What we know:
The chain crosses the membrane at residues 6-27, 39-59, 71-92. By secondary structure, the protein is mainly alpha-helical.
Amino acid sequence: MNGTISPIVIGFKTVTLLLGGLVTYLAAKAAAKTGSSSLSTLAVGFGTITSGSLLAGVADQLFGIDTQTALVLENALTAVGFVVIAYSLYVASRSSPRGR
């Protein structure tokens, strides 16, 4: 273990992983049902954000990577995830009749 973590932080991280996983699952399920590539990309974006949170925690607590590096990893994956989400929404709005 790299240090002590507040139970509040652990609680919020757990909620983030559960809800992020749920949103990712629902987006992927909707993509499979509709065949929408935008929804598939949306699922990838949410999955990236959620996995970033998980990977940073694992890197910090199990592999002993310093907290600063783990935070950089988490924030980098969050930023990439939001770029993917924004792209999926942009593509969806460009391809819809109302988006023109």
